[in-house]
Amino acid sequence: METKFWPVSAENPEQELIRQAAAIIRSGGLVAFPTETVYGLGADGLNSQAVRRIFTAKGRPVDNPLILHVAKQDEVFRLARQVDKQVQKLMNIFWPGPLTLVLPKAALIPAEVTAGLATVAIRMPRHPVALALIEASGVPLAAPSANRSGYPSPTTGQHVYADLGGRIEAVLESGPTGVGLESTVLDLSGEVPVILRPGGITWEDLSAVLGTVLLDPGLSDPQQKPKAPGMKYKHYAPRAEVLLLNGTPEKVASKIRELLINYQRQGKKVGVLLTTETWQSLKDLASEASEITYGRKLGSCTHLEDIARVLYSELRNCDMAKVDVVLTETYREEGLGVALMNRLLKSAGYKVINT
């Protein structure tokens, strides 16, 4: 299959390309498109056969539910059995934006979308290209991240093409995404709201609106069974082994220097992804630059949004550099740090070295 690669401006989406992409969706095809979080792989969310193609293209387990993307709040009333005042309040405050709401599902939604569950995940993305495509398609788009299952999510159209070229009909390319991490998933089907996946809308943001909000304990504890079926699978991981180092910048830098020496003796190539602060501490030690195959400063620990924006791209760059091991660091689990740590722990298989 030839995969079309169509550049589309976020400021002024090319209507003819949007119409062609929407026609692919309506005919049961797959189109990757940008959102403000990561690129999604879209299909007609009310077409069972089209939805099944998403799982095949990605190599995604069929018990991992999909998110339905809508262009207007009103569409939620057709897709969910129950939309109360709390749901409407959240939509008014956070939509369009990186918040997915899990609600009791309506009968018209195929079981393939929800993995047979009684609930459905719905969100309204903020990206103008995504909204234009949904509007032109005339259907909600079932869309997980547009990557091979288990790998870092795509934040550019080039990432999508590298993973899914020849497997899908088209990619709408509109440059790097803004948030860089997948949406927050909030389960509202029970008595107390529960965050099933942390993201750009933080626990603090939601608690300020709702009061009591819980974090699914399975997010950070591998011994706990996560409530969201998809969270039990390997996610966000490059081909290289990822090791997380926990400690002050000085102690992390010292441990990295020790590990670099050991890996050099083993003939292994090493990638290093660090905050600006830890990178400076590493530079203050004797230079180990020759032993780092790929090294990048992700941003300051005081601006986690900058780190989130580039994390997946840099993990992919480590693979392109053919490193064997990626050394990176932990973050305080508050605000956006909760989402960063969730992705990094999954990427590293929960391997953390305390320095």
Would you give an account of this structure?
The chain is an alpha/beta fold. It has two domains: 4-187, DHBP synthase (Alpha-Beta Complex); 241-354, Rossmann fold (3-Layer(aba) Sandwich). It has twelve helices and 16 strands. It has helices at residues 15-26, 48-58, 76-79, 85-94, 111-114, 128-137, 157-164, 203-210, 249-266, 276-284, 304-320, 337-347, and strands spanning 4-7, 31-33, 40-44, 67-69, 99-104, 119-123, 141-142, 170-173, 184-187, 194-197, 214-215, 241-246, 270-275, 294-299, 325-329, 352-354. An eleven-stranded mixed beta sheet has the order 1-8-2-3-7-4-6-5-9-10-11, sandwiched between helices. Strands 14-13-15-12-16 form a five-stranded parallel beta sheet, with helices on both faces. A hairpin with a 6-residue loop joins β9 (184-187) and β10 (194-197). The model has no long low-confidence stretch (mean pLDDT 93).
Q: What is the secondary structure topology, with strand pairs?
A:
Layout: E1 4-7, H1 15-26, E2 31-33, E3 40-44, H2 48-58, E4 67-69, H3 76-79, H4 85-94, E5 99-104, H5 111-114, E6 119-123, H6 128-137, E7 141-142, H7 157-164, E8 170-173, E9 184-187, E10 194-197, H8 203-210, E11 214-215, E12 241-246, H9 249-266, E13 270-275, H10 276-284, E14 294-299, H11 304-320, E15 325-329, H12 337-347, E16 352-354
Parallel strand pairs: 1-8, 2-8, 4-6, 5-9, 10-11, 12-15, 12-16, 13-14, 13-15
Antiparallel strand pairs: 2-3, 3-7, 4-7, 5-6, 9-10
Helix pairs in contact: 1-6, 9-10
